[in-house]
Write a structure and sequence with these properties.
With 91 residues, the protein is an all-alpha fold. The chain contains two helices and no strands.
Length: 91
């Protein structure tokens, strides 16, 4: 049968994942080129390229985790109460 999620909820999850991947790719690319530019422009040591790759991949993974984990918690905090008339869980 169904998973209990509406189409809107599935679309929101898909959009959240896409945003996490695209924003992580942009940030990782910026970090990579910022560190790799000396090696690319002035034929520097390959160590710069290795460091740039490591930092870029770390930024990518960190951003994906940050977006997916923190936004999930914020969504729970912003949900409306499940019972009409209640304004907070402590009421």
């Amino acid at each position: 049968m169904g998973s209990g999620r509406t189409q809107a909820e599935r679309d929101a999850v898909t959009l959240e994942i896409a945003f996490a991947l695209v924003s992580a790719g942009v940030l990782a690319g910026c970090a990579f080129f910022a560190l790799a530019s000396p090696a690319l422009l002035w034929h520097g040591s390959p160590v710069w390229m290795q460091h740039a790759q490591w930092v870029g991949s770390t930024v990518f993974i960190g951003r994906v985790l940050w977006v997916l984990l923190t936004w999930r918690w914020r969504e729970r905090d912003w949900r409306q109460p499940s019972q009409p008339g209640r304004t907070s869980p402590d009421s």
